[in-house]
Specification:
Layout: H1 2-10, H2 12-32, H3 41-57, H4 63-80, H5 89-101, H6 104-124, H7 132-217, H8 222-250, H9 270-279, E1 284-289, H10 297-317, E2 324-330, E3 334-341, H11 348-352, H12 361-372, E4 376-381, E5 387-394
Parallel strand pairs: 1-2
Antiparallel strand pairs: 2-3, 3-5, 4-5
């Protein structure tokens, strides 16, 4: 049964053609061959029945044209004195069809023609045996089905338009969700890229400095070389732990033990970071001004990563005798960071143009991090030499 229903829905013209044949047969079987007024039936009645049956057969394929054809046939019946036939039911059908799927002008024409059909027919062929009041009542009663057909068709049009609007809205929301998903994926990829850069750049730079120092004092001071190698080992393990944590974000479908990942760094670990840099041979002056207080986790991580990247850049670009200073200032409505060094500074292209030949991603990551928490960043050379990074991060009460 469902297959038959689907077939009929896919071939509406076949269904309309079937009902047109039925209407054609009913028109002749119901007395179309009997004309009380003596009209020549083959010359007038048969063409009227054929044309009205054609209106039913093609009503959904070309509703506007079939409406015009029905109006012309109806007018021809009035002029040629061809009394009402069962085939005139096609007028009721085309009024409904045009109201449901036709153009607006055709819908208005169908309503007007439908309301005028019954009065004109009653005036053209009045029942002289009845009173005027009875003829008027019959006229109204015959016009009512045309009005109801038009109202039903127009309500179907409204319902279809409503469902089409819902489908369009659902499709638009689906596209918006897909676009938001792409943006979220891109943002997550950028976040992971920043984290990987910060972890790798900082820890590898420490390991390189310690390895160079160990190689230089290996023969003269074995104890210092051993200490440098231990620092390399601990730094490497820390880097691996951070890498596992970041890769675990990508492996959401795999089971991981809770203790395998290190927690996200915060402002309190900046002092440990400074001590690590001092142990690797970089003199760092560290001061905290204001009253420390809890910060949002995003601000905590941003502050730590900025200091980490700034000190990494000092080791990479400041030269062998460079020193650095780190200032954390707690304001009433913000956290200030000032990281300076007295080295030779980074190349101009790194802080003005965001990097070249794959370099300069640290400053790009800094700006992205600061922008995500609504802060401001200023990076550039110091007037007296060296490099300066100044950051202001807005503070909100930690939830």
């Amino acid at each position: 049964m469902q297959r038959l229903y689907d077939f009929l829905r896919r071939h509406p013209t076949w269904v309309d053609g079937f009902w047109a044949v039925v209407l054609f047969g009913i028109s002749f079987a119901g007395g179309a061959t009997v004309e009380p007024r003596g009209t020549d039936l083959p010359a007038l009645t048969v063409p009227v029945v054929v044309l009205l049956s054609l209106v039913v057969a093609l009503r959904r394929r070309m509703p506007e044209r079939m409406l015009v054809l029905a109006v012309v046939v109806g007018a021809g019946q009035l002029v040629a004195d061809v009394a009402t036939l069962p085939a005139d039911f096609a007028l009721l059908v085309i009024v409904y069809t045009v109201a449901a799927i036709g153009a607006r002008w055709a819908s208005r024409l169908a309503l007007t023609a439908g309301l005028c059909a019954a009065p004109l027919a009653q005036l053209r062929w009045p029942d002289e045996a009845q009173s005027v009041a009875t003829n008027v009542a019959v006229m109204v009663f015959q016009a009512l089905p045309f009005a109801l057909a038009w109202v039903l068709g127009d309500s179907i049009r409204t319902r279809r338009a409503y469902f089409a609007q819902l489908e369009e809205r659902a499709a638009r929301l689906e596209k918006e969700r897909a676009a938001q998903a792409k943006v979220a994926v891109a943002a997550e990829r950028a976040r992971i890229a920043r984290e990987l850069h910060d972890v790798v750049a900082h820890n590898v730079s420490v390991m390189v400095v310690q390895a160079d120092g160990a190689a230089y004092v290996l023969d003269a001071a074995p104890d210092q070389a051993k200490k440098a190698l231990e620092t390399i080992s601990s730094t490497g393990r820390q880097a691996l732990a951070e890498m596992r944590r970041l890769l675990g974000v990508l492996r959401t479908g795999e089971h991981q033990e809770a203790g395998e990942y290190v927690p996200q760094p915060d402002v309190r670990q900046i002092e440990d970071l400074v001590e690590e840099c001092r142990g690797s041979g970089l003199p760092v002056d560290f001061k905290v001004e204001g009253t420390p207080r809890p910060l949002p986790s995003g601000v905590e991580l941003t502050a730590y990563r900025i200091v980490q990247e700034a000190l990494t850049n000092t080791r990479k670009h400041g030269g062998p005798n460079a020193g650095a200073s780190v200032r954390l200032v707690y304001f009433d409505d913000g956290l200030g960071l000032l990281v300076e060094d007295d080295g030779k500074g980074a190349p101009h292209e790194l802080y003005e143009e965001g990097g070249f030949d794959g370099q300069g991603h640290g400053l790009i990551g800094m700006r992205e991090r600061v922008g995500m928490v609504g802060g401001t960043l200023d990076a550039g050379p110091r007037p007296g030499g060296g490099f300066r990074i100044s950051v202001l991060l807005p503070l909100k009460p930690a939830s």
